[in-house]
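Chapter summary example: a protein plus pyridoxal-5'-phosphate.
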Amino acid sequence: MKVYFDNAATTPVAEEVIQEVVEVMRHQYGNPSSIHQQGRDARSLVELSRKKIASCIGAQSSEIVFTAGGTEADNLALHAAVHDLGVKHIISSKLEHSAVYNSVKKYATQDVQVYFLNFSPAGEIDLHELEALLKSIEGKVLVSLMHVNNEIGTILPVERVSALCLQYNALFHSDTVQSIGHLPLNLTNTKIDFVTCSAHKLHGLKGTGFLYVSKKNKISAQIVGGGQERDIRGGTENVPGIVSMGKALSMSCAAMAVDAEKVKELKNYFYKELQEIGATVNGSYDAASPYILNVSLPKTASSSMLLFNLDIEGVAVSGGSACSSGSHLGSRVLKELGVDSETPAVRFSFSRYNTKEEVDFVVEKLKKICK
Ligand SMILES: Cc1ncc(COP(=O)(O)O)c(C=O)c1O
């Protein structure tokens, strides 16, 4: 048996998505900018996907900008905030994904004042500190905080952050790569200036994502080219990737509540078993996405090479955001949270396709390794 519990790193492509993508690759190979029939057909697919995606998150089609993944979308949001919208202060956290964290650090050297917020041991951002900062800073501010942490799963109360940003006239960017399609997000009700998505985290293709840009923000391109995506992102559109994302996100949104319930049950069941092995949660159990469970396990002779040993047993997991099979290389986020680096930490991340039988299999292997 092979078990894949590394769905926060990437997910298997859904069969329904594969079928649509194959059809597009075989028959709809036109360039969406071409004016002939094949081009127009490809354009229709791109625009239909844009419409589907927008309706899943309460946005308008014109607010969706296709990119080559979550990293590019995060980079574009920060680039636009600083270069087009006059941002002089960025408030973020050291628990952000590297796509945001490293971008924020880059701007700190370019005349932008950067503030990293404190957080609890559970990874919950200090919103009192956020409010105090928003109150005291003069000049344009961007708050960049992720919705679901990709390593520990902690959920940010985006509604509260959105309300604070509105109150103090700050821009708000949220990396929603690990939450879109998993948790409800309606941008008509919750005002956010920028959100980012990556198709391969929800059973679509790799190398495809989007940035939602609220229509009140006029931004320019980071990647300059032929004027695609209304001059915000140059380059021929990745039509199969975009179609995959439209299909994958529609499927995830349609079954969101049912899938979340199923995955939550699986996580609860798994966690009970893990506690018997002596596992402790990193971050929070209750305030986390049902799709992510990060634990430290007792240190034994074979658990010190835990990821490697699980891999040999046919179980794919990771130690953090980078896939580090073989040995635990250490994670910035766990270090920031003060997790003991001597005990082996594992991130188990689930999808709607995982089963109880797979959990039983992994528990059996862990019992052997952590003996
Ligand atoms: C929270 C978060 N943001 C951004 C990314 C980057 O997305 P992509 O792999 O599409 O560049 C990831 C993927 O690991 C992620 O988990």
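Key point: The first strand starts at residue 3 and ends at 4.
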